[in-house]
Amino acid sequence: MGIKHIGLLAAALLLNATGCDANSAEPTQGRVIENATDFSILSPRARIAPENEMLADRLEHLLPRLMEEQNIDMWLVLNREKAEDPIYFTLIPQPEFAARRTTMLVFNRLEDGTVERLTVNRYPLGAPYEAAWQGGSLDEQWDALGELIAEKNPGTIGINVSRDWSVADGLTSALHTRLLEVLPEGFDERIVSAEALVVRWIEQRTEAELEVYPHIVGIARGVIAEAFSSRVITPGITTTDDVAWYIRERFKELQLPIWFMPYVSFQREGITCDPETAFCGDTGVIKRGDLLHTDVGICYLKLCTDTQEMAYVLRVDEDDVPQGFKDAYRVGNRWQDILTGEFVTGRTGNEILAATIAQAESEGILSSTYTHPIGFYGHAPGPTIGMWDNQGPTPVQGDWPLYPNTAYAIEGNIKHPVAEWGGQLVHIKMEQSAYFNGERVIYLAGRQTQFHLVR
């Protein structure tokens, strides 16, 4: 055992003296979800109407406020088939799978604060857009865009170019060049990056979305509960890959797309982990006495989840999780509370991270924080609060401030010695989807406060 490892273990053993053990107050917002069959799931066809209603609501009420906030008079989202802007599908009605040849969306802010939603396309999109031009050749289409810009005479024109935010860098080089060619003389000086508008558009959750989001997260948690049960796992036979593929195929059965391959691993007595890594765990045949972990993400009604939960495989002579593991998980819940307690409107991700680390260290908690926004993407733009490979400041993304009505994957891990494993450090890896309402963090479908049990 190295000197660093001894120091970490000694610090971890201080946890019992700081109140971060099983004697701590019961964690709030805990919720046990047993399966996904208790949740209704719309057919793909039935999803179109609510998705489009939520889009119309965003365009009608949210977008005007954000364009005013960012001082952008006109926003251009220009796309070509097979090379769509990353945010294109967050702006168009369903069912659409691609841009049609060259598709131009024009958002023009009027004096009364409302925003015209216009298209300059050979094929009009229909509601909630109005066609400003349709039909004709590609050259005629670009000329029509230039004429429309001249007619509207915006003071600032936002385009999706960004050095630091990939989601806001959707305007291709060729389209950018063509745009400059058709702009009225002198209008190129009005061009500004729309990166802040894009980030705000993607990160902001509406009241209608927050109505359905808990249901979506509940489905994801329900499938995890099914996977971490005796209906899927036979100790000594089932592998971690078997469980991962069960999760993937279960979501396919529910007609819900995953945005990454589910990951399943185990920790086992005698197999120690590097205390510096966030990715502790092995793969292979699951045995009794193993501690299991999974990482799962789906998207439904355009909203994505990101969830990590843990399970314990009971030994033949056990009927409950050993107390040392319960204590460890309680420390993990305490870390979550420390982190979410630092969520204050206007604070940057870097400031939240620094405050979390300082408080966790003062309580003797060995933690690693790598929390990120979620929404239209599993890894969405907004304030980055640590990264698994960087527990210091993250430039740009970590400097982004916290806004109300935004959603996050509360992600990270703690390391805690477990007496039943001879003081071996166990990694409790946690991730639960939540939203910040401006005052506090609320878990969208509760959070895990006790292990799933495999008998």
Automatic annotation (TrEMBL):
Keywords: Aminopeptidase, Hydrolase, Protease, Signal. Residues 219-422 form the Peptidase M24 domain. The keyword Ion transport does not apply. Pfam families: Peptidase_M24 (PF00557). Residues 1-22 form the signal peptide. GO terms for molecular function: aminopeptidase activity. InterPro entries: Creatinase/aminopeptidase-like (IPR036005), Pept_M24 (IPR000994), Peptidase_M24B (IPR050659). The keyword Transport does not apply. This is Xaa-Pro aminopeptidase. It comes from Aliidiomarina sanyensis.
